[in-house]
Each structure stands twice: as C-alpha cells, then as structure tokens.
Specification:
By secondary structure, the chain is mainly α. Helix content is 84%, strand content 0%.
Length: 149
Amino acid sequence: MSATLLAGISRTTEPRTMLRRFLALDALVTGVNGLAYVTASGPLGRLLGIDDTLLAGLGVFLALFGAGVGCLATRQQPPHPPVKAVVDANLLWAVLSIAALTLWFEPTTAGAVWIPLQALTVAGFAVLQWAALRAATTDVMVVDRQGTV
C-alpha cells in the first residue's frame, strides 16, 4: 500500500500517528459491535440468524478485544509484537467469519450480507494496520541510523 494512500486515509504523513489512528478506529468499531452483540443478542441473533448465546459470547470477546486494541492505540509508539498480534487476530477473525458462514451458520439474508461485510471490514483494518506498522518500523530504523531520536 502506498504511503500516499495511507496518508490520505489517516490524514497524516507521520507513520506512528497513522498506526495509532487505525488501531483506535479498530478499537471503536470492534468495541461498539461487541457491546451491541452483548446488549441486543436476542434481536440481533434473530435478525442475523445466529444463536443469541453465541452472539452474546462473541460480543463479550469483541468488547474486551476492542478495549485491548484501544489501550494499544494510546501508546505513543505502539510496540511491534502486540500490533502484529492484533493484525493476526483480525485476519483470523475474517477467515473464521467466512468459514462459519459457509460451514456452520444458516443465516438470514441480513446475516448473509452482514457476516462478509464485517469480515471485509476487519480484514481492511488488518491491512491498514500492517501497512502503517511497516511504515512506522521503517521510520524508526531510519531515525536510528541517523543517530537521532
């Protein structure tokens, strides 16, 4: 992904700020989604065609995951290993969502639309976060080679 595209999406040319913004957006979307699943698991379960108990459990996980990603986003320089773990978790979530849709779930029409959309959104977060992480890592290496911090 080009630096210009990343800068346009994140509205900054500073790689660490890009990364923090993408993490914060992920935390917000994931947290809100998780809270919705927890607080409205019955109606949303019926709308999507997914068991409400499963949806509530996923909601708790998502709310906690979103909180963790949010904490990471508050760091001035988010460390590489936890950010990589977030990227990996997002990619895994996207893959498992599509697998669940095709192998286990019998969703309603709304669920058949929602599940791939949220999988694509989460995969998009992973791509943006990975690209920003790479840019931030490259930026730090260039600064270190120059001998200034």
